[in-house]
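Retro notes
What went well: the complex prediction finally ran end to end.
Inputs used:
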Amino acid sequence: MAMLEVKDLEVHYGVIKAIKGISFEVNQGEVIALIGANGAGKTTILHTVTGLIPSSKGTITFEGNDITRMPGHKIVYLGMAHVPEGRRVFSQLTVLQNLKMGAYTRKDKKEIEDTLKMVYQKFPRLEERKNQTAGTLSGGEQQMLAMGRALMSHPKIILMDEPSMGLSPIFVEEIFNIIREISKSGTTVLLVEQNAKKALSIANRAYVLETGKIALQGDADVLMNDESVKKAYLGE
Amino acid sequence: MSFISYLINGISLGSIYALIALGYTMVYGIAKMLNFAHGDIIMIGGYTIFVVMNTLGMPPILGVLVAVVVCTILGVTIEKIAYKPLRQASPLAVLITAIGVSYLLQNVALLIFGANTKLFTSVVSIPAISLADGQINLSGETTVTIVVSVVIMVGLMLFIRKSKTGQAMLAVSEDKGAAELMGINVNATIAVTFAIGSALAAIAGALLCSAYPTLTPYTGAMPGIKAFVAAVFGGIGSIPGAFIGGILLGVIENLSKAYISSQMADAIVFAVLIVVLLVKPTGILGKKISEKV
Ligand SMILES: Nc1ncnc2c1ncn2[C@@H]1O[C@H](COP(=O)(O)OP(=O)(O)O)[C@@H](O)[C@H]1O
Ligand SMILES: [Mg+2]
C-alpha cells in the first residue's frame, strides 16, 4: 500500500472546478515530483492534502488513515509536513522561535533539541541568524527556514511547494542538494515545482499536471526524455 | 498635591480601560476583527455580580468569580455562534454583526433588569489610604484597581511568552494557514483568545462598577468605546500598547476633568487620539502592518 494515496480528487473554488478528478500515489521513501505550468493546480492539491482547503470529491489516505475530512492541524500529528508556497515564515518571530513553532506537535524537549541540532547542521546559516527576526532574512534564507521549520516536526513525509521559486541559481542548487539529503535520511518527499528540469533530476517518479488534470505520469528519467515534456516544460 | 491625587485616580481609571482594551486588541490581533460587543460583556459582568451579591446575598469574591465564568462562557459562545461562521466573510459583515450582538446584549439586559439604574455594592472592602498628611487620599477601589491590573498585565505577558497556547496565539495572529500547518488548532486558539478577553472584561466590570457604582444596560457602552480608542491609541494588536494606551487615556481624561472642564473631557480625549494618529498612524507601539495577500 502506498504511503499517500489520492483518489479521484476534485476541488472547487466557489463554482470553479480547479482540480478535476486526479489520482496519484507516493510510496515510502520516494521523491515524487508534481510539475505543471502556473495555475495548473499544484498548490491547490497540496493545500487539499494537508487539510487547508476542503475537497468536493475523492479520498486522501495517509498510511491507511482516511484524512480526506481531517482538519489540517490533526494531519500534522500523523507525520505530514508542508513547506508552503511563498515560504510563509512567521516574519515577526525570530528564526529560533520559528523553528520551535515547527516542533509544536512534539513534547520531548530532548528530542526537539536533537532535531534542532540536525536542522542547524543542514542550515548553518540559520544558526548564525537564530536571534534575527525572520522578516529580515533574504528569500533564500527564508526558504531554508521554512524547510527547517517543517523538519522540526520530524515528519514522515514532507510536501514542498516551489522551494526554488524566486531564488538565485546558487540558492536553487543548495536547496535541491538539501532536498536530496532529506530524502536520503529517510523522509518521503512530494515536490511541486515549475522548475521541471531540476525536479525531474532528483525525483523517482513524476506527474505532469495540466489545468487540474494529470496529463502524463511515469519514471522521472523516462519523462525527462519524453518529447512533449521536453517541449512544454524543459524548454528544449 | 491634588495633582498627584488626580494623576493616581487617572491611572486607576486608565487601568480599567487597559483591561478592556486588552480584550479588544487581542481579539483584533488574532481574529482580525473589531468586537464591538466587548464593552457590553462588562455590563453583563456587572449585573452578574449584582445578582450574586444583592439578590442571592453571597460574598463579593464569589460574585466576581461567577461573573468571570459567565462572561467567559458568553464570550466564547458569541464567537462560536456569531463570528465563526463569518470567518471568510468581508470585514464589514463581521463589524455589522458585532454591533448587532452589542445591541442584543443591551436589550436582553433591559428585558431582564429593566431600564432603572441599579445601585452597585462595591466588591472592594479594603480601607482608603491617606498619604502625605492627608493631602493625598486614595480609595480602596483605586488601589485595588491598579494592583489587579498590573498583576494581570504581567501574567498575560508571561502567558504569551512562555505557554504553548501563547505561542500558538502569536502564530495565529501572523498567519492562520501557516499556524495550522504547524499543528496549531486555529479555531481553538481564537476561542481561547475570546475567553481571556471576556474574563478580563468581567474583572474590568467589577472594578468599574465598584468605582462608579451605578448599573444600567448601557454601562459598558462608553467605557467600551474608550477602551477601543485606548487600543488604537497604543497600537491595535499590541498588548503593551493597549496597556499604555489605557493608562494614558485615563490620565488625560481625569486631568482634563480636573483642570479644564468635565464636560469637555471626552472631547479632549478624542482630540488627543486624532493628533496621535496623525503623527503616528499605527498608534504608539503599533508595528507597520505589511498586509500579506
Ligand atoms: N483562492 C482562490 N480562489 C479562486 N481561485 C483560485 C484560488 N486559488 C487558486 N485558484 C485558481 O485555481 C487554479 C489552480 O491554482 P493553483 O493551485 O494555485 O495553481 P499552481 O499552484 O499550479 O500555480 C488557478 O486557476 C487559480 O486561478
Ligand atoms: Mg502554486
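What we learned: Residues 289-293 of chain B have pLDDT under 50 and may be disordered.
What to try next: split runs per interface for comparison.
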